[in-house]
């Protein structure tokens, strides 16, 4: 662990939880940007998330906002979990196809930034310096304004989610579009549109990159 006057760097999720549990317990506003469902999972006996920590320990009202990458909704299990978090915990969830910095903001006065994984563990920076917190909060608000409500985005991606495993498998095999479309009972134009929509959800610029991103989030 390393510290400065306004930044504390911790080397694992377990250490992060120990040092911030009390902050989540008293927070009245939690904002989070995450690439996938399991970002910022707290290992404390059982797997917890910020919503769950706040929901079980905080005695007053709390506002929870979360932004997820669109690729998360390609996984049916993850999509279900997000709906549960929204409905049971009252979390306000939006979705974006853009790149995001994985971040948690507590009461607009504390920022937690996720770092790279080294040696199988991820480091986190806990920041309290007001100007830095304000800067990160401004970036989050901009991402929030441009993101799409979970229900609206999920309705548009439902068909893509259903076809994603087969399409990714066909792309991985290098099957020609005409043959792939026929195997799925689709027209070639429809198939190509589905591929383009899938690539957009994955944030991929090529079909090869789509396969890489899909493996990273575990949907193939």
TrEMBL record:
<dbReference type="InterPro" id="IPR000792">
    <property type="entry name" value="Tscrpt_reg_LuxR_C"/>
</dbReference>
<protein>
    <recommendedName>
        <fullName>HTH luxR-type domain-containing protein</fullName>
    </recommendedName>
</protein>
<feature type="domain" description="HTH luxR-type">
    <location>
        <begin position="160"/>
        <end position="214"/>
    </location>
</feature>
<dbReference type="InterPro" id="IPR051797">
    <property type="entry name" value="TrmB-like"/>
</dbReference>
<dbReference type="InterPro" id="IPR036388">
    <property type="entry name" value="WH-like_DNA-bd_sf"/>
</dbReference>
<dbReference type="InterPro" id="IPR016032">
    <property type="entry name" value="Sig_transdc_resp-reg_C-effctor"/>
</dbReference>
